[in-house]
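Input structure tokens:
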């Protein structure tokens, strides 16, 4: 099915934090690994996500990137109905447009706008304020101090961070849902956006930006929305880096 994207980001906060990010995204290691797993045709997209995160995490270790890590969020849009083995969060057979697979580790997030319902979160924040995550960390020998895992990390799942790998795992949360004509767009972004603006307000701002830039061709319009959301996060006072991908469904 057709979709259009636009991207924007603020500068990375430091060279150290960008090392693992750049390994994962250039030359598209995560994307290429997922595409390869899908091409093999032996797994559902849901299982391919799990394999991709595990293999990428192993690649980071093989590259001897030990002292840093990255969160990750991915969305895959398929024309097909959900795979028979998928655990589907939300499904409909009427007005079917495709199946959206979302996966994340850490606190990078994807939020969809559905006409008549508003913001729908497609991911799960892996932080220690999640009781299940805190329990898992402690059960595996970790501890919580200063609202951080082992007093160091604010997230409980990530790619990399191999010095803490006994408690910081790379297994993703995965959401599978069918989409219809009521599903209009998805905002995919790191925590620099979501920590400064709530899901509903991000969706409302995106809708306003779409209207403001309605005269632009769709690709430029999506880029303008992504850039506008970055600016909105900076205006709201974030001191974190902000990366946004805006996808029209």
């Amino acid at each position: 099915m057709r979709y259009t994207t636009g991207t924007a980001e603020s500068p990375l906060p430091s060279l150290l934090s960008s090392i693992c990010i750049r390994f994962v995204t250039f030359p598209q290691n995560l994307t290429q690994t997922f595409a390869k797993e899908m091409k093999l045709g032996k797994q559902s997209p849901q299982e391919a996500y799990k394999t991709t995160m595990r293999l990428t995490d192993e690649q980071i270790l093989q590259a001897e990137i030990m002292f840093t890590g990255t969160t990750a969020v991915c969305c895959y849009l398929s024309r097909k109905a959900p795979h028979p083995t998928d655990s589907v969060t939300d499904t409909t057979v009427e007005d079917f447009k495709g199946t959206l697979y979302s996966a994340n580790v850490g606190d990078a997030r994807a939020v969809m706008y559905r006409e008549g319902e508003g913001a729908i979160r497609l991911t799960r924040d892996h932080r220690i304020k999640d009781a299940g995550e805190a329990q898992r960390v402690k059960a595996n020998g970790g501890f919580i101090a200063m609202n951080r895992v082992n007093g160091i990390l604010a997230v409980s799942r990530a790619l990399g961070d191999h010095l803490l790998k006994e408690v910081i795992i790379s297994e993703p949360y995965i959401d599978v849902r069918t989409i219809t004509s009521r599903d209009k767009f998805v905002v995919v972004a790191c925590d620099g956006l979501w920590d400064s603006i709530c899901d509903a307000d991000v969706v409302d701002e995106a809708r306003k930006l779409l209207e403001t830039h309605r005269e632009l061709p769709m690709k430029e319009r999506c880029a303008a929305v992504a850039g506008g959301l970055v600016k909105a996060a900076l205006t709201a006072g974030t001191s974190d880096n902000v990366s946004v991908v805006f996808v029209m469904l």
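The chain has one domain: 4-125+173-248. The mean pLDDT is 89.
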